[in-house]
Amino acid sequence: MSKIVLVGVNHAGTACANTLLDNYPEHELVIFDRNNNISYLGCGTALWIGRQIESPDGLFYASKDVFEAKNATVHIETEVTHIDFKEKKVTAKKKDGSEVTESYDKLVLATGSLPIQPKIDGVNLENVQSVKLFQDAVAANARMEDPTIKSVAVVGAGYIGVEIAEAMHRRGKKAYLFDVRDTSLCGYYDPELTKDMDDNLQKNGVELHLGESVLSIDGETKVTGITTDKGTYSVDMVVLAIGFVPNTSLGRDHLKTFGKSAAYLVDRHQQTSDSDVYAIGDCATVFSNALQDTAYIALATNAVRSGIVAAHNIAGTVIESNGVQGSNGISIFGYNMVSTGLTLRAATEAGFKAMVTEFEDLQRPAFMKENHSVKIRIVYDGETRRILGAQMASYEDISMGIHMFSLAIEQKVTIDHLKLVDIFFLPHFNQPYNYITMAAISAK
Ligand SMILES: Cc1cc2nc3c(=O)[nH]c(=O)nc-3n(C[C@H](O)[C@H](O)[C@H](O)COP(=O)(O)OP(=O)(O)OC[C@H]3O[C@@H](n4cnc5c(N)ncnc54)[C@H](O)[C@@H]3O)c2cc1C
Ligand SMILES: NC(=O)c1ccc[n+]([C@@H]2O[C@H](COP(=O)([O-])OP(=O)(O)OC[C@H]3O[C@@H](n4cnc5c(N)ncnc54)[C@H](O)[C@@H]3O)[C@@H](O)[C@H]2O)c1
Fold first, then answer.
1. pLDDT for res 271
2. 131 in ligand 2 pocket by Cβ < 6 Å?
3. Cβ(35) to ligand 1 under 6 A?
4. Do domains 3-113+246-314 and 117-240 have the same CATH topology?
């Protein structure tokens, strides 16, 4: 029997805890989290703020009680302040100021990520906020009720920024969306597709300011405006959404970290450079199958799988992570986009002789009434022909199609192999000459 200490119990930590408690009850598990809630689904923040769901109640799927019922010791609202990796001891501070110390045989770090704070004036003004925690969602929602807040500047047109800008607009606020890059969602899609999302946002009333650098947030105590290199805009609230950094302050002096992100470097078993310490979720690296190399990709999906992998390995069942493709999706004002692997730009920057094939067609034969156009782009390596990424966009629900590309990247399928893959046809769903086959056949 081992004593396992888990620091952080959100998505990665919950998956790890449940896998240990359900499959290996012979081990002792001690859990710490500094937050007062567990397993908040951040994806629900925009849905709730935009009132696409009425309440945040369904956005949690784990709790202290459930872990305790499975015999774990759970310290919530208790922040781990120090880890003695030599003596294998964790020290934590409770809400009332008292200290707890626990020894471990194996330690799991699941401390997640933190929103990046831009180094500009005004970030501490009232009505500036990030949207990471449930508490942030509650605060943002309360601000939506404030009639003096009429306009909101969202900084960062990545996944969070685009979703929040839509939500604020749905709640009747004037939403401005700023990004240093020339399109929204530039980390996930090529400009050929993001220009459609940009049009969709503008058409629905979100005011885009792309290719603008925010220089300051203005105001005395409360936000009154935002200044960029192109102008000054009068706004009552600012949401910061310019990405996450791994939260590695507890272990970065002892454990090996990776590149600019400084995430804990882990192997395919989620083991760090210290064999008694595992790291999972947003604080750790992933293996990118597209790059065939280590990468940092903060996603709840990666977090959950990494928690499962770590738990089995700690308990003695040796399994390896499959690696990831960073598959992702978004749905804004009814327009759906999904992607996996590398964009053309990311593949080129990574040193591939990257090529792309694209196709656009109706989802179903033209004689079918309910029908929308679908755009697809497939990125592949011009030398090995290996598929490196795929992107799809439509008013149709095209989400399931991207999973096939995720598996194709994982399994190193070539663009030429895809040309003759068996894809079924039924007019209710698709076309005999479907856009996936046609994009593959058109590849140079
Ligand atoms: C608004 C929003 C929408 C999102 N939408 C999606 C989506 O649709 N799909 C998707 O895949 N991903 C989405 N994500 C990303 C996803 O939420 C993260 O990738 C995920 O939360 C990572 O889980 P984690 O458990 O690794 O880390 P975190 O969620 O960051 O959790 C880390 C935990 O560690 C605890 N902790 C940290 N330090 C300490 C300490 N010293 N002592 C004790 N406890 C500590 C924290 O309190 C926290 O509970 C979204 C994120 C946000 C903010
Ligand atoms: N649907 C989903 O799967 C989903 C939804 C929300 C969040 N997430 C994940 O959560 C993490 C955080 O999301 P996020 O939206 O904060 O990050 P992101 O990486 O998706 O987007 C950050 C955006 O901020 C921009 N940016 C960077 N610095 C800037 C600056 N100084 N001024 C203006 N713009 C700047 C970038 O160009 C980028 O467009 C990501 O890993 C994301 O994939 C996923």
1. 98
2. no
3. yes
4. yes
Is residue 100 within 8 Å of residue 94, measured between CB atoms? yes
**Number of residues that this document lists for the chain:** 444
Which pLDDT belongs to residue 3? 98
| Interatomic CA distance for residues 278 and 295, integer angstroms | 17
- Find out whether 192 and 378 touch, Cβ atoms under 8 Å: no
Q: 3-113+246-314 belongs to which homologous superfamily?
A: FAD/NAD(P)-binding domain (3.50.50.60)
Look at residue 257 in the predicted model and tell me its pLDDT: 98
Give the bridge partners for 237, in sequence order. Answer: 152
Q: Which residues of the chain have pLDDT under 70?
A: none
In this predicted structure, what is the pLDDT of residue 272? 98
- For residue 196, the CA-to-ligand 2 centroid distance in Å is 18
Indicate the fold that domain 117-240 takes in CATH.
Answer: FAD/NAD(P)-binding domain (3.50.50)
Q: What pLDDT is recorded for position 240?
A: 98
For residue 185, give the ligand 2 atom closest to its CA: 39
Whether the CB of 12 sits within 6 Å of ligand 1:
yes
Complex ipTM, two decimals? Answer: 0.98
Nearest alpha carbon, ligand 1 atom 19: 299
Task: Write down the pLDDT at residue 266.
Answer: 98
Pick the ligand that lies closest to the CA of residue 329. Answer: 2
- Residue 283 and residue 288: Cα distance in Å, rounded? 16
- Would you name the residues annotated as active-site residues? 11, 43
